[in-house]
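#struct-help
A.M.: can someone run this one for me? Single chain, 356 residues.
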Amino acid sequence: MSSYKTTRAVVIERPFEANLREIKLTEPKEDAFIAKTLFSSISTGTDMKTYKGMQHPEQCYYPLVPGYETAGVIVEVPKEGVNLDRIPESARKLKVGDRVMINECRQYGDVCAAWGGGSEYTIKDSFTTNDGFDYMVKIPDNVTDIQAVLAYLACVPLKGIKRMTLRPNETIVVIGAGMVGISAIQELKILEPTLKVVCIERNEFRRSIAEKYADLVVTPEEAVDALRDFTDGKMADQLMECSGNPEVVGTLHKYIKNGGWGDDDIPAHIHLQGDYPDRIIFDHYHRWFVKNATITMTCALRGGCKEQVLQWISEGKFDTEGLPIEVWPVSKCKEAFEYLNKKGADVFKIVFDWSK
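D.P.: on it. C-alpha cells below:
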C-alpha cells in the first residue's frame, strides 16, 4: 500500500469559516481502498448547518471536514487475499482506475470527520467507513461524475420511502424542494407512477424547479386550501417532510387525511426526512390525536440505495439535467460557503471541481 499520510481537504475551522488546507489521514488498514476526489459538493442542509455551528456537540467538533457527496477514482486497492467480507461482493471487485461514489469518511488523523468525505484523498477501510451502507460503488459509464455526486442525497429519501407503503393513486405531499425533496418526488413517481405528488415550498426559485417533477407545487400559505381542492376534500394520504425545518413538523396535521378508526381504515403516514437542528414542538395535541397518523423517521441511507439511484440515472428515469448546479473551483471553497450562507435557498447546489 502506497504512503498516503496527508491530503488537501475542505475544513470548517469554526462556525462561518471554511478553508482548503492540508490535513492528516489515518494509517490505511490492509483492507483499505483509497480514492481521489474529482468532484464534491456542499449539502445545503447538513453541511450548512455545520458551517453555521448548528450541529449538536455530541455529533461533531471543530475543526472538521464536511462533505460526503463525493465522486472520484480508485487509486489503491487491498492486496490480493485480504479478507473483504465486510463489504458487498461488488465493492470487493473495485480496481484502480474505476470511477466511484466515494462519500463518507468517519475518521481523519487530526480533525473531526463530520460525516467527512470532503478531502482530495479518502481512505475507506474497516476503521473509517460505515460498511453497512457507505461502501464505494462503481459509476456506470454513461453517468457523469457530477451526476454521481448528486446521487448521494437521492439515496437519503429512498431509504425513507422504503418505510412507506406506496398504493396506487394516493396523494403524497413532499415538503421542501431541495435536493432531498426533489429526489423524493422523482423516486415516488418512479416506484409508483400513479401517485399524485404535491410539493409545498416557500422559496420561489425552488418552486420553479419542483414544477418540473411534481403534479402540484404550492406555497405554505396556500397549501391547505389548494390540497383540499386537489383531493376533493380528502387531503394527503401520506407525507414526506424534507425541509429540515423543525417548526414545520409540529403542524403537519393540517395536510393529512382523517382516518385510522377501523382495522380496514388506513391512517395517514408522515415520514420525517429532514435534518433538524432544533427541538421539534408539536401543535396542540387535540389536532393530532384525531388523525391517528403513523409517524416514522430515517436518516442517512441503506445498503443498495447507491446502486439503485445510479441505475435510475443510467436508464434516464431519474433526471439531474433539470437541476441548476453551480460548479465552483474547490480553491474557492471559502467564498462558496460565504456565498451560499448569504443566498440561502436561492442556491440549489454548489459542486466543487477538485482540479481547480
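A.M.: thanks! DSSP finds ten helices and 17 strands in the chain.
D.P.: also worth noting: Residues 6-153+303-353 form a domain with the Quinone Oxidoreductase; Chain A, domain 1 fold (CATH 3.90.180.10).
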